[in-house]
Design brief:
single chain; alpha/beta; TIM Barrel; 3-stranded parallel sheet; 10 helices; (R,S)-4-hydroxy-2-oxoglutarate aldolase activity; Aldolase_TIM
Length: 205
């Protein structure tokens, strides 16, 4: 599976911070039941890798990825846990090589034109734009369509359900990352009904 394949599964990919691995499978089942087929579990908690492993094992229809990849070691640990892709907030040679060595697709992060051009030179044509709102918002990405027509972007960071359509209206944005679908408070509370409602609305964007 390529990053293009992952982003082609839906216009919105939930970005998840999870504190309790026992909530991972119910979360994935709720998202699948509401037409969300991919998920990024950020490696910001001690439960993240166990959550990825549980989803990979018990919800094979959910394409689970790992976010906040900051080192080659995290790339390898994510692949070993069952992640099918990884996402980095920025890009370094070590992270890129680590993902290649782990044989796992990488959605690399960038926030400047120079970083994007450097990634394109390395063969990446799909880039995470982060932090999306703080780094320039939809107008910035819209302005890149002419000078960088070969690149597409998955913006993440500060996007809400209300602002998501502004991004998805751009021809170079096939998918975006959204933390509003399943915030940690709702996951911790096991509020699958509200998460399901958010997911259904996101699937229709």
């Amino acid at each position: 599976m390529t990053i293009d394949d992952v982003l082609g599964l839906g216009h919105v990919m939930p970005v998840i911070v999870i504190d309790d691995a026992s909530k991972a499978v119910p979360l994935a089942k709720t998202l699948l039941a509401n037409d969300i087929r991919t998920i990024e579990i950020t490696l910001r908690t001690s439960a993240a890798l166990d959550s990825i492993a549980a989803i990979a094992d018990q919800c094979p229809d959910m394409v689970v990825g790992a976010g906040t990849i900051l080192s080659p070691e995290l790339a390898l640990a994510s692949a070993s846990a069952g992640a099918r892709f990884v996402v980095s907030p920025g890009s370094t040679e070590a992270v890129i090589k680590g993902c290649q060595d782990a044989d796992i697709p990488l959605l690399p992060g960038a926030s400047t034109v120079s970083e994007m051009m450097a990634l394109a030179e390395r063969g990446f044509d799909v880039i995470k734009f982060f932090p999306a709102m703080a780094a320039g918002g939809p107008k910035f990405i819209k302005s890149l369509a002419s000078p960088l027509p070969h690149l597409t972007f998955c913006p993440t960071g500060g996007i809400t359900e209300a602002t998501a359509p502004d991004w998805l209206s751009l021809p170079n944005v096939p998918c975006l990352g959204g933390s509003w679908i399943a915030p940690a408070t709702l996951i911790n509370d096991g509020d699958w009904d509200r998460i399901g409602a958010h997911a259904k609305a996101a699937s229709l964007l």
